[in-house]
Model the fold of this input.
Amino acid sequence: MAEEKQTCYEGSSVQSFQFYLEHSGEHKAILQCVHNLLPGEFKRVAEGKSSLDVLGVGSGGGEVDAQMLTLLQSTVPAVPITADIVEGSSALTDNFKALVAKTTNLQKIPFAWHIMHSEDYEKHVKAKGVKKFDFIHMIQMIYYVDDLAESIKFHHSLLKKNGRLMIIIETAHGGWDTLWKTYKKDLCVHAITEYRSSAEVISCLKSQGLKYEEHVITNAFDISECFNPSSQTGQRLLNFMTAKDNFYQSFTSETRAGILDLLKNKCSTQRDGGVFFNSNLSCILVHA
Ligand SMILES: C[S@@+](CC[C@H](N)C(=O)[O-])C[C@H]1O[C@@H](n2cnc3c(N)ncnc32)[C@H](O)[C@@H]1O
Done:
């Protein structure tokens, strides 16, 4: 029987993702960008409106959502906000709900939880009619949608006047792009069958004639431990970076050696005695 394409994080992939977040500094880098860019964007989006509706797609445990919603509340304190969340992982949605439960300001926001794939949400919306949104975000999730062009078109169609669709994705020619495109045949086999970076998203936006701005989010993290075969940390990072449960059992020794060589020499910078993986991201703001 063909293996089912499972894009949403459940079971061991939840732990693997949490481990990655703790080691990569990714949320810190994203939040810095969010705090720099979004207050101005939120003011433009909110102008003349008496309420604001936010849609988070693939929000995971909601750590970034919580900060963005808090920022939105403080940017336009008098305006009531609603939040719809489309997330296919029930485990991560539980984490998000727990975060809301312990964050006083978020309890003022009515949340609608759609625990489903974004493709199913799309079908549901198309069948039942639409709630439109002022701010939609897809952070580090667009790798997983079945049809990139269709997903962008659909989410863009949900924007209200002056709305923004924010897509955060690994940047073109960064470490992830280099790794996943060089080892496409070995890596693009399960949840991700076609690796996407900001280049693919921007080419889609251009072909749909959509207005956007791209902002680079710089980030790098230490992968030195990946080159020590007895390091648990190294192995867990390699598992996440190659989307495998066990890096050492998943590839031939030749492929493993090739991946490690590429990681060190093409995807990273060596400095201060460490190997720092280039994990720059792009934050793309698409206009309504
Ligand atoms: C890399 S995580 C990013 C989570 C969160 N946005 C963050 O940056 O912390 C990708 C998330 O997208 C979710 N996901 C993957 N495919 C999805 C789909 N087709 N529809 C909805 N969520 C999806 C996964 O379950 C996971 O929570």
Observations:
- Residues 7-9, 17, 58-60, 63-64, 86-89, 92, 117-119, 139-141, 144-145 surround S-adenosylmethionine (CB under 6 Å).
- The chain is about 45% helix and 20% strand.
- The longest strand covers residues 159-170.
- The longest helix spans residues 26-46.
